[in-house]
Amino acid sequence: MGKWVSVAEKRQFLKWFLAQQQLKRKEAGRVLEHLLQHYHLLEQVIFTEEIRSRERTIVVSSIQSEETGFAFYLYRKKIDDPARAIGELQANPADPVYVILHFHGKAQNQQYLQMLDSESREYIKHYKQFRAYKKEAGSLIEAVLIETEKNTLLKQIDEALDHKDEQRFKLLVKQLQELDAQTS
């Protein structure tokens, strides 16, 4: 962890999140509102990106996310009932509460990134790096496939010339020209 975030910053961010995001499950908003209403609970909130199997973790998602709308992980058990989550928060107010928020654009949202514990910031940094590498690798693979296809056509053109097959030669030259036109 290592990063301290004030209760005021947490409150401001959660208010922004609730105002800007439409949640998949409205009851999930009640859990976040409960945290906002209780200073001592908000003190225990740690924003993260991974479920802590031995800790209390709340997961809330907006409608733009593919993740589950709400989940509360309580010491290796998954609970889908927001009312039970609120009850657990009230029963053990001194225990840390990890909060995972899923919404569109969170990887670029500076306010959100400032809330995250340092491990999660590293996770997002690596994710962005992975996406860039994936895009670059995809472009490279596509270029190699096109080059291979061109080389194959050139060899077939040579064979058509060797066999004096004018019809096949014209067909292959046309295919090569079409391939060049697509990649230009």
Keywords:
184 residues, UPF0302 protein M3202_12235, hypothetical protein tt1805, single chain, alpha/beta, UPF0302_N, 7 helices
Report what the structure shows.
Belongs to the UPF0302 family. The protein has 184 residues and is an alpha/beta fold. It contains seven helices and five strands, in the order H-H-H-E-E-E-E-H-E-H-H-H. It has two domains: 7-116, hypothetical protein tt1805 (3-Layer(aba) Sandwich), CATH 3.40.1530; 132-183. Helix content is 60%, strand content 12%. It has a five-stranded mixed beta sheet. Helix 1 (7-20) packs antiparallel against helix 2, helix 2 (26-37) runs parallel beside helix 4 and helix 6 packs antiparallel against helix 7. The longest helix has 45 residues, at 118-162. It is rod-shaped, with a radius of gyration of 27 Å.
> What is the strand content?
5-15%
Secondary-structure-based class equals alpha/beta
What is the mean predicted local confidence, pLDDT?
A: 86
Q: Specify the oligomeric state.
A: single chain
Total tally of structural domains:
2
CATH class of the largest domain: Alpha Beta
C-alpha termini separation: 50 Å
Q: What is the topology, as strand order, of the major beta sheet?
A: 1-5-2-3-4
Order of helices and strands: HHHEEEEHEHHH
Q: Share of helix among residues?
A: 55-70%
Weakly predicted, low-confidence segments: none
How many strands appear in the DSSP assignment?
5
CATH superfamily of the largest domain: Uncharacterised family UPF0302, N-terminal domain
In CATH terms, what is the architecture of the largest domain? 3-Layer(aba) Sandwich
Q: Shape from CA axes?
A: rod-shaped
CATH topology of the largest domain: hypothetical protein tt1805
**From the alpha-carbon coordinates, what is the Rg to the nearest angstrom?**
27 Å
Count of separate DSSP helical elements: 7
Biggest sheet, in brief? 5 strands, mixed
